[in-house]
Amino acid sequence: MFHSETPWFHDRRRLLLIGVAILVTSSLVSLCHGVSSSCHHHPSSTSFHGSRRQILEGANGTLVLAAERTRRPDPLNHFNIYTDGWNVTNSHYIASVGFSAVPFIVISIVWFVLLGLFLICSCLCCCCCGCGRRSYGYSRVCYTLSRLPPPLHHRRRVHFHFLHNIIKIPLIAIILYHLNDNFFRIGSAMLYTGQKEFYGSVEKTFMYIVNQATSVLTKLTSLWDSIQSAKDIQLDGHNLFPPQFRGNIDHFNNMIKMSNITYPDRVANQTIRYLTGALNPVRLVLNVIAGVMLGVAFLGLLFSFCGLRVLVYLLVIVGWILVTATILLSAVFLVFHNVVADTCMAMDQWVHDPAADSALSQLLPCLDAKTIGDTLDITKTMTSTAVDMTNAYTVNVSNFDQFPHNNPFYHNQSGPLVPLLCNPLDEHHNPRPCAPNEILLANASQIYKGFICQVNAEGICITQGRLTQASYDQMMGAINVGFTLDHYGPFLASIADCTFVRDTFRDITTKNCPGLSITSQWIYAGLASLSGAVMFSLIFWMIFVRERRHRSHTKKTVQMNRF
């Protein structure tokens, strides 16, 4: 026989279930929107050719990067669509990408308010109306649901009949429990795998940037050391290079320092330290929340089966706060996911047009054409001058049979003539082929060693040879300058015209961006799944513990009536 319940309680429970259904549906809609937007706007190198190229020119002539993807409502501009593209220095871009998380924020607020009102109303009703004056027994809904046939699968049917007959749980509750348990497992797996892969991708990306920047800085340090040493090179007490040439060296060093070439190394290392300090706490929070939510889910299930009503209600309050925090954390990672996807698309588009003025080129400025030309002219002039001055010394001193009184150039030179160096540039600084009797700069050190003679205390050769150890060392100083500048000339040009930065960005967009985008998406999707699972769990616990209490009271009443 059924015992009636207060209609107000049925209406209250029905409204709460409807509210939770709306919240979870909204979560799935927001999640699907985030996934679809990231998939539809995934950067691809084939989308920048022909009519599919989606790079627009702004009103001031700057290149608008990721224009289609960044079209979002701008709360700072009366919620008009933001159209200026990717620009992390633009407050309107930051506001628009932050606005993409509003659905999750609204869901968290609505959830917090609805369940809070429900808990307050339940407490007031229990205190004012009396929790024990209601009739007990099976509610009509639970009784009807408990009579539903079990699933057809044999093993599941045995398991369900066991729970139904031994623990007296309605079959629909067991079905919902299994569904909710699957949501927990999926959400936990996505969150754990996503955060692990995400932080691995972040570390891999920035370590690649640091390695690239360190490689640049190492080459530049070697270049600067070679250039500075050229100012002090002397042959037999005389400066090898004239004052005007030494002035060009000073001008070159000043130009390099003003060009901020060490900027990528400084920024990369600063960013690594900042990300380590910012992301490690977030990673810890994710792990703690995932562990706590799994613990709450397990304890809630255990307490509800045991009928520990007070502990279940305490866990409901804890879960109420945890779900709110998890949804807000989902909003944060949705924003981060959108920023990562926007940045990857902006880098991919900038790679195809690095010369144009854009927000990305302003953060990583490339040298203009005049600076590029001046830099290359200086390096070519220094290379050619170093080779010419060394060849002049070879012809006029080493290969010339000096008289003993012609100090300091007399060293008792004898033997085969020292071959001349191959100047890689002609008088117009264009590449030239080497003559048959010329030697390459790279081989000069080994070849010239064969022309060194043994000297006495006065520095006069006592064996056959045309170079003393001192003159050889001084000549090699000039040769090293010429070789270094000739070797690093293309490298300097690649830095000056942004080829180096473009290649780095291309590697990041093709190798690192897909992983960053997918794993950040897994994180907020896992958080959303956990939030939805805990939402349903809270409702199931309250309903189950109430029905268990009613059945226990009914059982006692029946036993008393028998006597």
Description:
The structure is a single chain. The chain has 563 residues and is an all-alpha fold. It has two domains: 7-231 and 246-366 and 502-562, no CATH class; 369-497, no CATH class. It is 69% helix and 2% strand. It contains 14 helices and six strands. The chain has helices at 7-40, 91-99, 102-130, 140-146, 154-167, 171-230, 243-258, 263-306, 309-352, 359-363, 369-398, 444-449, 469-496, 499-562, and strands spanning 56-57, 63-64, 73-74, 80-81, 234-235, 238-239. The strands form three sheets. A two-stranded antiparallel ribbon has the order 1-2. It has a two-stranded antiparallel sheet with strand order 3-4. A two-stranded antiparallel sheet has the order 5-6. A hairpin with a 2-residue loop joins strand 5 (234-235) and strand 6 (238-239). Helix 6 crosses helix 13 and helix 8 runs antiparallel to helix 9 (309-352). The protein is elongated and about 140 Å long. Residues 1-56 and 132-169 have low confidence and may be disordered.
Describe the secondary structure blueprint for this structure:
Elements: H1 7-40, E1 56-57, E2 63-64, E3 73-74, E4 80-81, H2 91-99, H3 102-130, H4 140-146, H5 154-167, H6 171-230, E5 234-235, E6 238-239, H7 243-258, H8 263-306, H9 309-352, H10 359-363, H11 369-398, H12 444-449, H13 469-496, H14 499-562
Antiparallel strand pairs: 1-2, 3-4, 5-6
Helix pairs in contact: 1-3, 1-14, 3-9, 6-7, 6-8, 6-13, 6-14, 7-11, 8-9, 8-14, 9-14, 11-13
Provide a concise account of the structure shown.
By secondary structure, this protein is mainly alpha-helical.
